[in-house]
Known about the structure:
This protein is an alpha+beta fold. The chain is built from 7 helices and 8 strands; from the N terminus they run αααββαβαββαβαββ. The longest helix is centred in the first third of the chain and has 13 residues, at 36-48.
Amino acid sequence: MRFRDGILNLVAERGLKAGEKIPTEAELKAHLGGSRPTIREALKLLEQAGILSVEHGRGRFLTAAGTLHVARSITQFESITEMAGHFGYSYENRVLGFSEETPDKGVRAALKLAPGETIIRLERLRLHERKPLIYCLAMIRRSLISDPIYEVDWSGSLNAVLERYGYPPRMSTAEARAEMLPESAVSRHGLSDFGPAFLIDETVFTRSGEPIMFASDWYKGSHFAFNFARK
């Protein structure tokens, strides 16, 4: 994601217009660092999003859609930690609990689990300056984590954990709506002043399309706003 954002930032800095050629892979590597395969992967993501077009033998060009910019796109796939920097927050992750469980029908369907397959249920709270801003529930396929769950450090990035076990998250499908925190979370964790929330339910996939995690994140409504471009 860093290289994809880096390419977009470079395009914006240079004031490129629709139809203009973007820097070559070699130029991007020199400017952004990283490897050629990493740069190509970032370019491929931008092509798939319709931001770049490829003309074989000529190079890559910025599309009209690529000139539309929003402050914080709700369609952008990134971890909560990555997103925090864009909003100016640095989070403390507080693990509220984790366990191995039998999933409900909705999670079973989202993750395409076989009968008898279990999930790791992870409950966390994201705080900024000791104030809770995001309440998070993640359901991870148990079969992906080869170690006992109590040996895993759940306080950091879940994307990094999954990548370490060989299942790097690369895309997701999501549903967003306004919803209050679950009453059980409010009463158990003293979150009565959390207020209205923006809920994102998200099924996360590897690049090959394998579902690996179902997450529900309640963003404190008074602190977050997302934008989108309609194309």
